[in-house]
Amino acid sequence: MSTKTAIKSQAKRLFKEQGYIGASMRELADAVGIEGASLYYHFKSKEVLLSDICFELSDQFFSSLHAVSSVGGQTADVTLSNAMRNHIKIVVDNIDASAVFVNEWRMMSEPAKSEFKRARRKYEVFFKDVIENGIQEGTFRKDINADLAAITILSALNGIYTWYNPDGDLSVEDISTHLENTLLNGIKH
Amino acid sequence: MSTKTAIKSQAKRLFKEQGYIGASMRELADAVGIEGASLYYHFKSKEVLLSDICFELSDQFFSSLHAVSSVGGQTADVTLSNAMRNHIKIVVDNIDASAVFVNEWRMMSEPAKSEFKRARRKYEVFFKDVIENGIQEGTFRKDINADLAAITILSALNGIYTWYNPDGDLSVEDISTHLENTLLNGIKH
DNA sequence: CCTACCGATCGGTAGG
DNA sequence: CCTACCGATCGGTAGG
Questions:
Q1: Which of B152, B178, B188 is nearest residue A156 as measured by Cβ atoms?
Q2: Chain A partners of B19 at a C-beta cutoff of 8 Å?
């Protein structure tokens, strides 16, 4: 693993554990095994490190949507289920980066911050549109607010990083099945 | 409003906007209209401010549970619905504090941090127990994982602070109805 | 609640 | 990738 990759990897962990501002560049350098000043050979600033981490994950989320929407002729519930499962897998495979993505993006300055917000909104709108299609198809109930449902679902999926234990006995498959069930079918009989 | 109350109120806003570590005591003092050093007359340290904010909201959540469980003879779906609605109202009425509660509690040091985690887990377990009761009653489906469902529901409810707009056209009642519907009944027909 | 102050630490740069 | 360094800012205290 290159030094640059090692820096990014440790940055994800430290930004998650102590927050972007709480984690110092010296501490990061220590974790990697170099001097503080040497970090600036690899990254122009602390903030570039933050935006790299956030947009790297954002790109993964959009790749997933691209894969999901390139499969045509599915009913909305299948499309939504696929998008959710992909999202869950990305979060579980990138727990530290997900925490940064969810919590620390606000610390970016402009114009990166606005770009990030636009991307995140676009992602939410994809989910909203799938749900709206499902309502028109008759797959989903017509009394639901598609935008609110999309945000609710994504909140629950993004929350996974707060409780997921990589050493626990829940597989990605288990989590996907249960969350999909709860959010799409509800818990009532 | 007393100075102490004003400090806490501004601290909620600043901790939300800039994170606990990113918000400085000088900035907080400016927002209140006093000198930085004067804050220490009202609060022993920055961290006491943080834990006060977190535990104040935690207390509100537990008061709500107490009210919910003192009403006996309800089926689990009604109990869960009441607990969810109360939770949503507390979040919406305390948007800034909710952001701190969800994101910044990790910055507390021991023993407050462990105490906070225990309280939060106890709260989750209440939800889990209600769901388990509902499964045994036959109110809820028996193939759901009660603990996972509880955490999923609370993730979605806690996420409200990230998108709720106090000046928007969604009332607390609207939000409660839609989220309850989505999470308890699912979005499928 | 203020003035005056302090040691510690921060992100970042110069020059090699 | 390191040594040496810098201005700025931090949370907090002393004494009034």
A1: B152
A2: 19-22, 106-107
DSSP A106-144: GG--TTHHHHHHHHHHHHHHHHHHHHHHHHHHTSB-TTS
A51-83 confidence digits (pLDDT tens): 999 999 999 999 999 999 999 889 999 999 999
- Average pLDDT for residues B141-149, to the nearest whole number? 94
SS3 label, residue B83: helix
Task: Give me the residue label for tokens 């509800």.
Answer: A186
Answer positive or negative: Cα dihedral of B171, B177, B181, B183: positive
Global confidence as pTM: 0.94
CA B142 to the chain's CA centroid: 28
- Of how many residues is chain B composed? 189
Which residue has tokens 């597989």? A171
Whole-number Cα distances in Å, B178 to A142, B94, B168 = 12, 20, 16
Report pLDDT digits (tens) over B30-50. Answer: 999 999 999 999 999 999 999
- Let me know: does A125 contact A143? Beta carbons within 8 Å: no
φ/ψ of residue B168, rounded to 5? -80, -175
Q: Which residue of B has its CA nearest to A21?
A: B22
B178 to chain A: which residues are within 8 Å by CB? 144-145, 148-149, 152
Instruction: Please write down the long-range contacts of B113-118, taking CB distance under 8 Å and 24 or more positions apart.
Output: B116/B51, B116/B54, B116/B55, B116/B58
* For residues A95-118, average pLDDT: 97
For residues B105 and B116, the answer to whether their CB atoms sit within 8 Å is yes
